[in-house]
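Appendix B. Chain record.
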Amino acid sequence: MMGGKEISERNYVLESRNQYQQFSEDRNEEDDKKSSMHYASFNFINSIIGSGVIGIPYALHQAGFGFGVLLLVLVAYITDYSLILMIKAGHISGRFSYQGIMEAAFGRAGYILLGILQFVYPFIAMVSYNVVVGDTVTKVIIRLTDIEPDNIFAKREIIVLIATIFITVPLSLYRDIAKLAKISFFSLVCIGFILLSILLRIRTISKIVPDHPDSWRFFNSDIIPAVGIMAFAFMCHHNTFLIYSSIADTSQKKWETVTHASILTSLIVSCIFGIAGYATFKAYCQGDLLENYCWDDDLMNASRILFSIQILLTYPIECFVTRGVIENSIISKDPNVPMSERTHYAITLSIVFTTYFISMATDCLGVVLELNGVLAAVPLAFVLPAFCYLRLEEGRIFDRNKLPALGVAFFGLSVTTLGVIFLFMDIDQINQCSHGVVMDYCSLRYLNVTQNSTEI
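Structure tokens predicted for this chain:
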């Protein structure tokens, strides 16, 4: 009897040990799928430093150079605070998704409102990425290869299709956002090269840019449009919980560290972009800074190519969000049950090719992108996170600990309301494109070079 008992106990111990070992292996395997704080920061910074950073010099011109820099710091600070509010709201409600905290705070109506905004913003952003790639890469290819404009490889439809098939589709089909961390790091390298190119061209290009009476003004009146551009540049809230959940052993403290580091890095990069771009072109800054450079400048053409690669690498992160909205809001699948391979492929390919066909229908999003920034980016970044926290946190709305969140909500509502008013007042001026326009000073430089060559 005793021998049988010893064997039974030994078997129980071995079985328990095997179960614990299996549990440890499963847990380690799950942790392996998570990313470190550094890689999470790379993903976060990559989602912030997208196409919007190129518009910062133009925002400084609109608000005035001195006041614009101060405004950029303010927008970054409010963005940082709102991102922390979102995760706090998640901990209070026990719902770790943007949809979850909105539903916990405002019920089904809040859930539906967020779903609409959260779908519209990244979807139109993906369309704009295709537009930029189609216009920029096509013109650079014509410049580098001297092919005729009617050549098949000089058609924006073909260029974007090639980029879609070989870059955006494979990356967008990933299920785990943590797998994009190393790709995110590479896209930051692209931004670094572009920034270096802009710094190298300050002295040479600024010499041919003519003087303008509005250059270096401390304050200009177009503050609200400038805030809209800056909010668009820092917009990353729709990726917040995806990146939060990708951090190994995540916590509120770790999240705050990742957020502070990511926003500070993005602010520094944005300031350097803005100041360098403005110092070069001053009042002539366009919404897309790279459009200011001459098309025979091969260094900047390389930057244009890298910028196109960078936004193509940002595209999959936006696709993650858009696909998530469809899965959770339309299909209403159980988040604990993985989507089937067939459904996953169908949704992803539908999103990618729909954005492709829309981007082929126009080469100028103009007022649509302005509306996207005012009606989607600002509410997603400032208004809704603050409202969620104010609704979920205990206490009166005017309690001291709620006043900063109340200020963020008021700031966002003011920008949205005034932005819509100004947008419709200036709608004829906004709906304009500048893709591929040869700046006057580039033509003058070409004429001067030609005249000098003739004289020699």
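Further analysis of this model is presented in Appendix C.
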